[in-house]
Fold:
Amino acid sequence: MKKIYPCILFFVLFLLAACGNNSVSSVGTPKTLRKQAESLSDSTPWTEELDGGLLSRNIRNMDGIHPSVRLTLDSMILRDRNFLPKNIYPELDGFSSLDVSSIPVKVKYNLDLFCKALLNGDSALPYIKKDCAFQLSLLYADLKDLNAGLNLFDRAENDIPEIKFSSYLAGKPFIENSMVQLPVRFFTSREKFVDLSLYFSPDEKADWKIDEVKITKTGSGKNIYGK
Structure:
């Protein structure tokens, strides 16, 4: 037993010495994280600043922007007119965009005359193709049938409904080869509307006239654009 204790004591002292050396060597390591970062920064090829004060410079004026306007990202974008659309058109929910800029000139001319004829109670026959005159008769017949249930039109002195609109709006056309399809919303004095789809094509004289008329929708509403 006397021989065992010195051996145990020696073993414990050996362990303490070993742990102490590891602790010292760990703390005393020269390559710390900071020195490694500094070394990496020193060895990295950095480019020179092009304009070091650009981000801190106080820019008060800029060409194309009035001095009273606060410089923001929005105002600088608006300064470049290429960012702005040339025209902005409204769009009626359930109908169409009111962008009529792409309607061909000859189509627009006959469209306006046809619509004004329906507004004034005049004959719209001159704006229908000769072999499609029945389309106008079908339109008036359908409007009379709709009026019986929807009460679209005012009644004249003889108590007969007067098929006459108060205003209209044309929508964006669909153009394909020799056909132009146009949505048109007609309003009545009773704050009702009727949507028509008009199909134009050139006749033998290259005059664009209507060859088909379809009623696509009816409803209640005012012409807020006042045309």
Q: What stands out?
A: The CA atoms of residues 44 and 108 lie 68 Å apart. The first strand starts at residue 167 and ends at 170. Helices lie at 4-27, 33-43, 73-79, 105-120, 134-150. Confidence is low (pLDDT under 50) at residues 22-28.
